[in-house]
Amino acid sequence: GQVTSGVNINWAHWWLQNGATKRVQDCEVHNTWSRTSLNQYEYGLIISNHGGTGGYCENVEVLNCIVHDTSRDGLCLYPGDENADCRIKNITVRDCEVYNTGQDPDYGAGAGILVKGYVVDAFVEYNYVHNTKGAMVFVNSNETNHYGFGPTNIHIRYNSVTGDNRNGGIRIYDGHNGSDPKDVKVYGNLIYNSTINGGFYIGSDLGNTLSLLIYNNSFYNSPVLISSNSATVTTFEFKNNIVYYNGGIALTDSQGQITSHSNNVFYGSSGTLVTSNGRSYNSSNLKSGYEATAFSSDPLYKNTANLPTGYTGSYGVNLAPNDDGLSVQSSSPAINNGSALASTYNDSINSIIRPSGNGWDIGAYEYDFGSAQVPLAPTDLRAIH
Fold first, then answer.
1. Distance in angstroms (rounded) separating the CA atoms of residues 177 and 140
2. How far apart are alpha carbons 224 and 198 in whole angstroms?
3. Domain membership flag for residue 384
């Protein structure tokens, strides 16, 4: 077959595209091919810029697409680094499915959704990413040249991510050629059955500066692993997350780089639930030693045999995972016990605005008190004799 990418926007041939919205919708991209050993580099769907200011690419939407069986990465937000102005901006990737990436036998990776280099204001939301060779969602610096600009205001939210490989579920990374600053928000996601290097993974490669918010995610059979690295952390908040992992330690923060954490559920059978900067915490000292607002009891997922494989409903109305096994039961400690965050983060993976009850829920779902609320007692009764 022909060596080519499936869909490319401003990649093979660039020009100025910073005006009207460009939309790719309801497409299936598959069986793209290239071989690294032959100096071939092709992708499933790629948005790029190799022309600097003359190749600005902005206002792109990728909606309801399926990308699978690609030689390298699947769905890519990936400008070049020929000069400091190779930027793409205002990109939305929504309600897509990506799987079976990295089919080139010469290539050791193959991310599902890739955000690499000078990408600004990107929203990766409500996607089902699974069974990829590289990380399911991968945030990376420029490939070769570094100008002090990197992924900025990147929102990874309300996705369903699953698969077990050495690159992790959601990963923030720097390659051997150098590093760039990163500003990333990860919230409202379901991450499940990603055990090898965790549902969320930062490795020893990370450098430069990092601003990172991790809010209201639900991890199942997927630990959070933050290895020792050389990054300078400006902000790293970890709040309102459920981390359920029976295979070992739920949260490892090797250097204690998390700057603020609260209202999390850490649950597992290993004894140690959290390690931070060389200290270990279990259910007996978690609240007193690590996090006063933490919970170590079972979050009571509804049915862990009933995991999502996509989404159902309409965006902005009732879009939600097609199976709700990682929602929580009505008696869960996650309900109403979260920290109230900024309105930017008050949506949920099941499209219920937070709070629905007396407080924010912990985890990706918000319990729907609107349909389960007990009626209030009437106030206008009078006795009849």
1. 12
2. 5
3. no
- Asked whether residue 218 is domain-assigned, the answer is yes
187-207 residue pLDDT tens:
999 999 999 999 999 999 999
**What token pair was written down for 27?**
């497409």
- How far is Cα 334 from Cα 111, in angstroms, rounded to an integer? 31
In a domain, 2, yes or no: no
**What is the pLDDT confidence band of residue 90, given thresholds at 50, 70 and 90?**
very high
Peptide bond into 355 cis (omega under 30): yes
Residue that the structure tokens 């595209």 belong to? 17
What's the CA gap between 144 and 117, in Å, rounded? Answer: 10
- Domain, as residue range, for 176: 7-372
pLDDT, one tens digit per residue, over 43-60 is: 999 999 999 999 999 999
Q: What are phi and psi of 372, to 5 degrees?
A: -120, 5
| pTM of the full structure | 0.95
Task: Kindly state the tokens that stand for 289.
Answer: 């030693």
In total, how many domains does the chain have? 1
